């Protein structure tokens, strides 16, 4: 299967919302999903489309200044998990952030203190693409939903 990455376009918004809706184990709160999708811009988000020109994955970044960027949201259609699409997205995010002068890329996901099999897969994925756990917080999202912050240093 052939996949291509390009900058997000406003016409991709509905497809990105559909991807989040197809991932209820990770993205089960409609209001939060709407906020993620509303925050996507051509300057800070990328999409993956397949040979039929359908958007099948996306990633949105936030510039926090001081050389630090965050992966705010990433979704890959569940039919395409384990095919390297997420790795391609994160590789492109790393290239983009480094080109913009960023030195750090971080991401938040559910932490191991509030264990969930799906989020264990997420944590393994981020470790496999070069992110290291920095700390876990029981206050960021609340004690029932621990937040794990993972970081990746870019360049030297």
Task: Please tell me about this protein's structure.
It is built from four helices and seven strands, in the order E-H-H-E-E-E-H-E-H-E-E. It has a single domain (3-153), classed as Gcn5-related N-acetyltransferase (GNAT) (Aminopeptidase, 3-Layer(aba) Sandwich). Helix 1 (13-21) packs antiparallel against helix 2 (30-38). Strands 1-2-3-4-5-7-6 form a seven-stranded mixed beta sheet. The radius of gyration is 15 Å and the shape is globular. A hairpin with a 4-residue loop joins strand 3 and strand 4 (68-76). The protein has 156 residues and is of the alpha+beta class. It has helices spanning 13-21, 30-38, 85-99, 117-128, and strands spanning 3-7, 45-50, 55-63, 68-76, 104-110, 132-137, 147-153. The model has no long low-confidence stretch (mean pLDDT 95).
Oligomer status = single chain
The structural class is alpha+beta
Task: Write down the overall mean pLDDT.
Answer: 95
* Tally of strands: 7
Percent of residues in helices:
25-40%
**pLDDT < 50 runs, ≥5 residues:** none
Order of helices and strands: EHHEEEHEHEE
CATH top level is Alpha Beta
Task: Identify the overall geometry.
Answer: globular
Biggest pleated sheet: 7 strands, mixed
Just name the CATH architecture: 3-Layer(aba) Sandwich
CATH H-level superfamily: Gcn5-related N-acetyltransferase (GNAT)
Distance N to C terminus: 35 Å
Number of DSSP helical runs = 4
The fraction of residues in strands falls at: 25-35%
């Amino acid at each position: 299967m052939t996949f291509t990455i390009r900058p997000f376009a406003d016409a991709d918004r509905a497809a990105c919302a559909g991807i989040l809706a197809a991932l209820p184990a990770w993205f089960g709160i409609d209001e939060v999903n709407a906020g993620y999708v509303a925050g996507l811009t051509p300057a800070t988000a990328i999409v993956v489309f397949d040979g039929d020109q359908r958007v099948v994955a996306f990633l949105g970044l936030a510039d926090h200044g001081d050389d630090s960027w965050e992966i705010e949201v990433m979704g890959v259609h569940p039919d395409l998990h384990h095919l390297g699409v997420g790795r391609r997205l994160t590789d492109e995010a790393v290239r983009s952030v480094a080109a913009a002068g960023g030195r750090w890329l971080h991401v938040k996901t559910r932490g191991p203190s509030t264990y969930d099999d799906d989020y264990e897969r997420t944590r393994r994925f981020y470790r496999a693409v070069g992110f290291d756990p920095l700390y876990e917080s029981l206050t960021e999202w609340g004690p029932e939903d621990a937040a794990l912050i993972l970081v990746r240093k870019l360049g030297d």
